[in-house]
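Weekly puzzle thread! Below is a chain. First person to post its structure in token form gets bragging rights.
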Amino acid sequence: MGIFGERNSYSKTDHDATFMQMKDDYMKNGQLKAGYNVQLATEGQYALAYDVFPNPTDTRTFIPFLDNIEKSFFKLPKYIVADAGYGSEQNYEDVIENRKRTPLITYSMYRKEKKKKYMDNAFNITNWDYSEEDDSFTCPNGKKLAFQYLSNRTDKYGYTRTFKVYECEDCSDCPLRFVDNHFGA
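Winning reply:
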């Protein structure tokens, strides 16, 4: 545990490498392999900056990569463009609040939310009717879920997010109660 520190693994032959889920190879076996996460900043198909991280997720490398670009390479542009792999509340907040830039980063659920199956799912809270007037949702059974309180959750990296919690007055006799367990506000 002393070797891998904040990471979840390391390679016995390369202590700086972390085991990561690699994309499928020519044999179609996606598997865990020791590796690094290489980040590259580009403009007009030119490489402008790079860095190498032992962290397997782009989301967690974004802020340190931007820090390194500002420290070692150049001033960040007005618009920070990245794909959905970098989309997180923490990353958006960092770009807007700390760097005074505009993030053009698709959030991670964007593609899924555009699929018909997602948009037609009656149990998905994003498809429920919302009343701005009394800050409440209406579930597929016609019951009102009113705002109750704010909940703060801190992830394992120390970032705190605030969620609004909504509750139904009484779901005990709901005929849809066990149809789909994805009721979550």
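Puzzle host: Confirmed. Bonus trivia for everyone else. The helical segments are 58-72, 89-98, 110-113, 116-119.
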